Hints:
Rossmann fold; zinc; cytoplasm; RNA binding; Zinc-type alcohol dehydrogenase-like protein
Amino acid sequence: MKAIGLTRYLPISDPDSLVDIEIETPAASGRDLLVKVEAIAVNPVDAKVRAPKPQVEANPRVLGWDAAGTVVAVGPDVTLFKVGDPVYYAGSITRPGANAEYHLVDERIAGHKPASLDFAQAAALPLTAITAWEALFDRLGVSPKGDDAGKSVLIIGGAGGVGSIGIQLAKTLAGLTVIATAARPASQAWCKRLGADHTVDHRGDMAAQLKALGFAQVDYILCFNDTDGHFPAMAELVAPQGKICTIVENAAPLPVERLKSKSAALIWEFMFTRAMFGTPDMIAQHRLLNEVARLVDAGRLQATVGEHLGTINAANLRRAHAMLEGGQTIGKLVLEGF
Length: 338
């Protein structure tokens, strides 16, 4: 089968950083679905995993953690899906990725594709929807039923993939007052279209901008960009007994003592945790994706495709990685068909 892989971890400008390859089609076993991949999306994690380092792979490594396609075979223990089902999912970072014609995924972390979306639109949602949902509802403990309506949330990186769905979940399901950060007019307009009540520029003094909007502090903060750079502002802005959730690893020790007097919480979200450790509640991601699909089909959540980059091949994937590394993307980057 066709796939895109790497053996060396190179700058994305190097044509050998991602190459077109032929590999053996895998077989489904256990609770695995074998999916014919119709579309994929590209995320910052793809570029981080591919980033230059001395390591060399004996066999080509296939990346990619966002896909939509059709089930063509199932393992003997599968109970949630059947052959022919359209699915969407983010996969596991510990297994070969979805940048291939056929891909194995555990049924417990896959969902039924939203019927109202095509494959490319659906592929843009899984990783970011799981991340934003878990960050907001599981980690911060916000009610998805509106019990915390009226409280405030600052979403740092509002126009990115996770921010794009995070804004919608915070506004549509939780009923929060949403302040999203966006630096450019186009990204500010994107955030407002998705439901943000206010936007501020994360390149400037966020505390001063929030105070000008009437927010001395916020109840919750979702950090989807540069934990190190934004931590001082987050520590200042989070309310007493408030909560911060970040998805971006820090490069240096954080001055977490600044949160002590407020009894404020700093919490991590990593959407691969359940699959990586085989947690007893792994199936929660299956249920989560099915609920997101229901909300999309009901018109309560919007697709978050920012740009369609064409067919699935090495050249287009290198272009997507370069765009992500440039830090100027809005929404999700998708590719479709081989």
